[in-house]
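Hi V.,

You were right to ask for the full record rather than a summary. Here it is.
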Amino acid sequence: MTGLGSTPSGRLTVALTPAFSQVFVAPRLTAFRARYPALELEIIVTSQGASLMRDGVDIAVVVGPLEDSELVSRTLLEPELIWVASPQWLSAHKLGDTLDAVRSQVQICETRYALRRMAMHVNGEEAHMDLSRGVVKVNHPLVVRRVVSEGGGVSLLPRQYCDELLAQGHLVQVLKHIRFAQAGSRITAVYHSRRLQSPRVRAFLDFLVELTAG
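Predicted structure:
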């Protein structure tokens, strides 16, 4: 068996969520390959990474609460959910000043947030919004981001997927007085405890931590 101090080599299968793979991993993947040329890396892009851990996946990145308590987890990000809209949409519409008015301006949201009672705080007080009906639901935050940036109303997104477009002026953060609990958008690396003994898994976990360190 390969020891902990060995140079990582051999096959490594990882499962990454679509948005995380595009925004975080893809821009740095060449550097990771140069650092560990002996690794035979296979990346599976999926939103069901944790369920694949029984099928030979060595390490997975998942979003939201974990259901399998047998897996070891390492929190990578505790993203802030924010409300965003495009400058073009804001110039043509009056932003809602009540929850009901805001709700009517949400055209699309990520499926994980399309809840009948989406918990939030309005000026520090608990409130709920029904996002289960009357909106387009999509299991990919970058699709929501694109629709909103093209004038598709108001929506909520993890900040890490908005920072670039906010800086470029393609999105505007709005409704800062309406805040969300973060557990639903937590990004976590999961793996079996025995697999962390592998230098391959340790190397990729360290890479993930490095990517999300800021």
